[in-house]
Structures are given as structure tokens and as C-alpha cells.
Amino acid sequence: MSNTLFNLQRDHLAHLQRAYSDILVAQGLDSLAIYSGHASYHFADDQAATFQTYGHFMHWVGLANVQHSWLVIKPGERPQLYLYAPADFWHLPTNLPEEPWVAEFDVHLSSNKITPPITGHAAVIGDIQQLETSTQQAIKAEYQPAALVNALDELRMFKTAYEIACLREANRLAIAGHQAAQAAFIGASAELDIQLAYLGASRQRESDVPYQNIIGLNNHAGVLHYQHYSLQPPKQRHSLLVDAGRRFRGYCADITRTHAGPDAPHGFNDLIIAMHGLKDALVKSTGPSVEFVALHEQMHQQLGEILIAHDLFKGSVNEAISEGVTRAFCPHGLGHSLGLQVHDVAGLRHPDGSSAPAPALHPALRLTRTLRAGMVVTIEPGLYFIPMLLAPLRKTSLPINWALVDALIPCGGIRIEDNVLVTANGFDNLTP
Questions:
Q1: Sheet arrangement for strand 251-260
Q2: 206 is in an annotated binding site
Q3: Which of 105, 133, 156 represents a domain boundary (last residue)?
Q4: pLDDT over 60 (residue 109)
Q5: 184: confidence class by pLDDT, cuts 50, 70, 90
Q6: Bridge partners for 110 per DSSP
Q7: Among 79, 75, 77, which residue's Cα sits nearest to residue 107?
Q8: What is the pLDDT averaged over residues 60-78?
Q9: How does strand 31-35 pair with strand 239-248?
Q10: CA 130, CA 40: separation in Å to the nearest integer?
């Protein structure tokens, strides 16, 4: 790790120490124990599911696979890290990296699972319900107090310079994967081959990705969370959609690109270019004091203009929006908060922790906040040809060019996604 990044990380840890102390004092708490979590075994099996460390633990430690460990925070004192490190010849023993930031903690290695040593009026956060009953009973503290969790979630909404550097590096690594995926598509690969190319170029194993990569060829690009990888290349290559990320020190990149294939119908590549333009316009509209819901509505306004300009809809923009045409072509939200989790915390809450639900017309929107400097969000407009969503429109007299829609259905759809930092003066696109 470079000295620059360590200095940023040291400042980040000092910031967390101050912020946590203020929050704990304000809530009358003497100590806080954060449980890292642990993987759950599949039913009637000895194999565990993919695991991710609890976000508030990872906020301090920056490692995404720490299990059965505790972090104890007390106002004005050094953080105490109790790392579960059993002697084990079946697996590589748990260990912290030999990096300077480790010295910012008092580290206690334990070969046994422990009960955290908390004192006074204490709180515990994390999934302790998965712990053994005896351990749960031994912990005398408030479990998951809502006011505390809301305050810590709000803290994570605003990224330090260290976190921004990590997110930027995660984007750089992910872009290498996207370039390799595009090259594999040009080489007529199957979805599985494209996935493997992505993993190789982004230097990660599949269990380490921040979310299951979406590699959709042709109509699979219209399945928003497509979950499979076909083993054989299709006979025709209309399109490829790659929604894939990378972690760096726990922080996530979440990038989507869409490519036209050699068999794409006329006009599909022009639509991809138009959607890149829409994404760029929305990124440029991002900044402090901007309502994210208003950005989402801007997406629908400009999507209506694209539908008209490309002869998919022959009415007005207002008609396309009011009659639900744009929602049928793009059913998801514009984006979400991004950080240690891909869909990061506090996106649907006000700063005071009260609920800020998605509007009724846009129930899939994951972020309803007023943007502030330090937030990192995704901007990901989409345009899809999903028969299930278009079917109700076919029963209307709306001026939709169904012949063109039907020609584009084999392409599935288009999504373009960048990761954007809100700055004091506007924005910084972290996706190179």
C-alpha cells in the first residue's frame, strides 16, 4: 500500500474515532461492540454460503471476509479489535495484513470465539442472532438500537478522502474487466467465457465480487438481474450487457456497459450511443442540493425524447411519461448510494433517520435523498424491450412503433452505469 493511501486511511480512522465518540456520547453509551458476522451453512450441508463482513465493521477494518470477530469502540479510547484466528490445518489461518494501519488498533488474536468485553451502558450491532445461544445470553447490552444504527448509517453516506480513493481504484480495476468482457464478446464467446474473461482481467475470484455479475447476451440483457451464464455462444449476436463490479479494501465499483453485436438490428447501436449521452447529461446534472428524485424524473423526460427521436414513440414526451410508456421501457430507478455495499445504507431515509420512501410512481427507486458533497451514487439509465412490461401497452391506442419494438426485442435492452462522487462544486465521475 502506498504511503499516500495509508495517510488517507489513518485520517479516515481518526475521523471515525471522533465521529463514533460523538455519536456514543450523544446517545449515552459507554461502549459499542460491532460483530463482523459469519457465513451460514447451507441446510443439511457443511458448505457455507458466500460471506461479506458487516458493513460497519468493514468501515473500520476494510476487509470484506473477516468472520467471528469483534470491534469494541469506547469514546476517547483506542479501538479494540478481537480477531478470531484459530489454529487450523484445513484452511489458511486468519491474519491481518502487514500494513501500517493495523497499528491504529489494539489487536487481540484469539483461537476461540469470544464474548466482547463491553462495559457500562453498552450497545451491540451486527447479526448476533446467528451466534450460539450462550454467547447471546452472555452479552449484556442493547442490541441493534435503531437510533444508533441510523446515525452510523448516515455517517457512511459521506465518504472520506480514503474511501473515495478506494472507490476510484475499484472502478479502475473493474474497467479492465469490462474491456476484457467486450473483447470476449467480439470473439464470439459464451456468457460463461465472458464472465471468466471479466474475472481474469479484474483480478478477482467469483466469490469476491461485490454482487453477482450480470452477463447477458441478446434477450438476456432485458432480464434486469439475469442470474445465469450460458455455456454455448448464441448463433446470432445481437447485444451484450455487462453489469459487473470489483471491490478494493471493501469498497465497491458497480459499472454497466452495453454493446451491439454484428447481428444487431438497424438502429440498436444508435440507441446505445443515445443512452450514453443520457447518462452523461444526468452525470453533469449531479451536484449538491440536487434532489435525486428530480434526477430520476429528468431521466424519464430525456428517455421520452430518445423514444421519439428514434421513432419508437410517435406522441409527445408528456404523453410518454403520463401514460407510463417510459416506465415500461425503464422500470428501475436511476441509481443508488454506493460504498461498502453496492446498494449502500440510508438511501431511503432522511438525515434524521426517518423514512423517505420511493414515490408511488417509481417504487423501485433506491435513493430519495437530497444530494450533498461527499455522497457517491450510481447513475444508470436504461432502455429495455421486455415483453411482459410492454404487453399492457399493446392493448392501448398509444402511438408506439410496434414493428420497430419487435425488431429490437431480441436485443433485450440497454443500461449504462457510472459511479459519481458529489463534490462541493458539482461532481466527479469515478468511472474512467
A1: 214-217, 239-248, 251-260
A2: no
A3: 156
A4: yes
A5: very high
A6: 84
A7: 79
A8: 96
A9: unpaired
A10: 8
The model's pTM is 0.96
Tell me which DSSP letter residue 221 carries: G
Return the closest-CA partner of residue 71 out of 61, 62, 63.
61
181 and 121 in a single domain? The answer is no
Burial class (CB in 10 A: 0-12, 13-18, 19+), 224: middle
| Residues spanned by the domain of 392 | 161-429
Find the mean pLDDT for residues 367-383. Answer: 98
Number of domains in the chain: 2
Q: Where does 162-268 show beta strands of DSSP type E?
A: 214-217, 239-248, 251-260
254 is in an annotated binding site: yes
Query: Within this chain, do residues 107 and 238 fall inside the same structural domain, yes or no?
Result: no
Say yes or no to pLDDT of 92 above 90.
no
Task: Provide DSSP, 301-315.
Answer: HHHHHHHHHTTSB-S
DSSP state of 414: E
pLDDT, tens digit (0-9, with 9 covering 90-100), for 171-181: 999 999 999 99
How many of the other CB atoms lie within 10 Å of CB of 29? 22
Statement to judge: residues 181 and 277 lie in one domain? yes
Domain end call among 111, 129, 156:
156
Annotation-wise, does 46 bind a ligand?
no
User: Distance between terminal CA atoms of the chain?
Assistant: 21
* 240-269 residue pLDDT tens: 999 999 999 999 999 999 999 999 999 999
The neighbouring-strand residues paired with 108 are 82
The CATH number assigned to the domain holding 387 equals: 3.90.230.10
Alpha helices (runs of H) in 44-190, residue ranges in sequence order:
55-61, 133-138, 146-157, 161-186
